[in-house]
Design goal:
mainly alpha, about 0% strand, single chain, about 170 residues, elongated, Four Helix Bundle (Hemerythrin (Met), subunit A), 5 helices
Length: about 170
C-alpha cells in the first residue's frame, strides 16, 4: 500500500513559500468552519430543490477530488513537497493530469471542498467554503508560479502558455 506523505523541502535554501501554506490552510479551515456554521445559523439558505441529488453529487465530487489529488501528487513524485521549493534542475512535469492543467492537486482539493459544500446542501455554506478555498489557492498558486518561473525559467513559462491553472481550457 502506498502512503501519501508530503515531505518538507529537500533543501531549506530552496524554500520560496512566503507563508502561502499557512494562508492556504487557514482559509480552508475558516471556509470549513463557515460551511457548517452557516448551515446551522442560516437554515433559510438550505437548498430546497432536490437536496438528495445535491448530497449525492457532493459525495461523488469528494471522491473524485481526493482521487485527482492523490494521482497528481503521485505523478509529481519527488518534486512534491509541502513547501514551495523549486530546484533549478527540477523538470516541468507535463504528463498525467499535468498535460491539461498546471495545478491538478489543487483542483482536486477544490473539487473535494465543493463536494463538502454540496453535501451540506446550503447555498450560504457552499459559497463561503468555496470563496475561502479559492482565495487561499489563488494566493498559493501565485507564489508557486513565481517561484517556478524564477527558478526553472522558460520551460515553465512555455508550459504556462499551453495550460490553464485549474480547469482544462477554461481557467
Amino acid at each position: 500500500m502506498h502512503r501519501q506523505m508530503a515531505k518538507v523541502a529537500r533543501n531549506v535554501d530552496l524554500i520560496q513559500d512566503k507563508g502561502s501554506l499557512l494562508v492556504l490552510l487557514t482559509l480552508q479551515w475558516i471556509g470549513l468552519a463557515l460551511n457548517f456554521l452557516f448551515a446551522w445559523l442560516l437554515p433559510a439558505a438550505a437548498i430546497p430543490w432536490q437536496p438528495a441529488s445535491f448530497y449525492f453529487a457532493g459525495e461523488v465530487a469528494i471522491l473524485l477530488g481526493v482521487a485527482l489529488r492523490w494521482i497528481s501528487i503521485r505523478v509529481l513524485g519527488a518534486s512534491f513537497t509541502r513547501d514551495v521549493a523549486v530546484s533549478p534542475d527540477q523538470p516541468v512535469v507535463q504528463h498525467g493530469p499535468y498535460r491539461l492543467i498546471r495545478h491538478p492537486a489543487y483542483t482536486g482539493t477544490f473539487l473535494t471542498m465543493l463536494g463538502v459544500g454540496l453535501v451540506v446542501t446550503n447555498w450560504a455554506s457552499l459559497t463561503a467554503l468555496l470563496l475561502c478555498v479559492f482565495l487561499g489557492h489563488l494566493y498559493r498558486v501565485r507564489i508557486e508560479e513565481q517561484a517556478l518561473v524564477r527558478t526553472i525559467g522558460q520551460p515553465y513559462v512555455e508550459y504556462m502558455r499551453r495550460t490553464k491553472r485549474f480547469i482544462p481550457w477554461v481557467f
